[in-house]
Amino acid sequence: MKIYIFSLINFGKTKYFEAKCYWFEAKFIYLLIFIIMFYYLLPLLAGFIAQYVDGTLGMGYGVSSSSLLVAAGFMPALVSASVHMAEIFVSFTSGISHLKFGNVDKDILLPLIIPGIIGGVLGAYILSDIIPEKGVKIIVSFILLCLGLVIFLRFYFGKIKKREGNFSKRFVFAVGFAGGLLDAIGGGGWGPVCTSSLVALNKRRPRKVIGSVNFAEFFVTISITVAFAITLGIENFLWNITLPLIVGGVIAAPLSAYTCKRIPSVLLGSLVGVLLMIINAKTIISSFISINFAIILAILISVFTLLLIIKYAKPESRILEEEE
């Protein structure tokens, strides 16, 4: 009888111990899944969102993906190197997608590439060590913020008609050089500088400008990334961030190019202006306060300003349909 009772007690203890083991195993599996999702799914989602914004509006890949990943707790230096590496593959896919949907204009594309490469390499090697990064960012961001407001006002409230004539090649060269230079110095700037400058002149439909800037970005990004890889070392690229960023961006590229083709010029130009204001307001504010609060504050200020404009201004007649 004693042996029987002792056996029952041991059996109960064994079952209890096995149950505790299963519980710990389940917790470990859940923790492992969470870690995998955090380190791989989050960068993938960030890459998808950033490329969809960039491919549709011509800017925002570096800013969007970096902001999401830094806010999630990744180190800024590793994020910057990884985003530039991912941007090579993503910008190539985006450029091909825009080319397929007829969003690329060779008169804009070719003059952007060479000066963009020169400016990017020069910025990566020299200017980032000579000019204070913070001061450059604030000045450029303020100019682009004002330009974003001008673009929004022009497209949302003005009569949108394409001006006659082509872009001056000297102007496009200067825009490409400035875009590559600022992209290397500040970790972003190609899209905001090139897209905003060319859209503001209104000599091409916004989708043509956006597609051409996206395609040219591939060549500029390669030059900047190679320059940084030589100066900083390839080991600074964190591949558990880079690969998901590439996958997410490649998935989003065709969708964003199609969206860019289908959105009317008035709406697309207005959205470019809004995004410029949000991005550059965030950059200026984050120079003085924490980046997470700066993002929220920049969005609130931009939205509030736009609501005031929409409420108290009367839009004139606008052309809503794209000319094919």
Keywords:
single chain, 324 residues, mainly alpha, 2 domains, 11 helices, 0% strand, globular, disordered C terminus
Structural write-up:
The protein is an all-alpha fold and 324 residues long. The protein has 2 domains: 35 residues; 253 residues, no CATH class. Helix content is 82%, strand content 0%. The longest helix has 56 residues. It is globular.
Give me a quick take on this structure:
The protein has 324 residues and is mainly α.
What integer value in Å does the Rg equal? Answer: 25 Å
Distance between the termini: 94 Å
Level of helix content? over 70%
Which term fits the overall shape? globular
Which residues form runs of ≥5 with pLDDT under 50? 314-324
Number of domain modules: 2
Mean pLDDT across every amino acid position: 73
Query: Order of SSEs, N→C?
Result: HHHHHHHHHHH
The major pleated sheet works out as: none
